[in-house]
Amino acid sequence: MNIRKAEMKDIKGIVRLIDQAKAYFKENGIDQWQDGYPNEDVIRNDISLGHSYVLIDQDQIIGTFYYAIQEESSYQDLRNGSWHTSSPYAVVHRIVVDNTIKGHGYAKAMMDYACHQTLQQGLSSIRIDTHKDNLSMQRFLQKNGFQYCGNITLQSGAPRIAFDKIL
Question: Pairing state of beta strands 52-57 and 90-97?
């Protein structure tokens, strides 16, 4: 198992995982990623910025995530709560594991990688958000030390709940 920055040759494998997640959300009545986002153009841009990562096992892409040290404009207006720190932070978005192998610690491996990278860069917190109905992601975040912080609104206007983790 290996985590590395995604390359343009990985787009098809990443989009396959994103499409699996979209179908899962639809089947479970979760109104997340049902508006065409994220799509191949988003992934291509993530890769060109160096923010897209893949989890590889036996030459297959089995997971993907977005990781960056950057301020998120949608995180500036947090309602019904507060962040646990105001210091610079990293963000994780679009963490996805192949549907056929969920529940084997792959998402944790990707999040652990992001936490390690954050510490290596001298930062001490990570922020992430998810849909209010995405209960499996909320359980995953809380199990991995993330704490609920409040509500945000994405640039698209979609509401999300926000979490952070102090490392």
Answer: unpaired
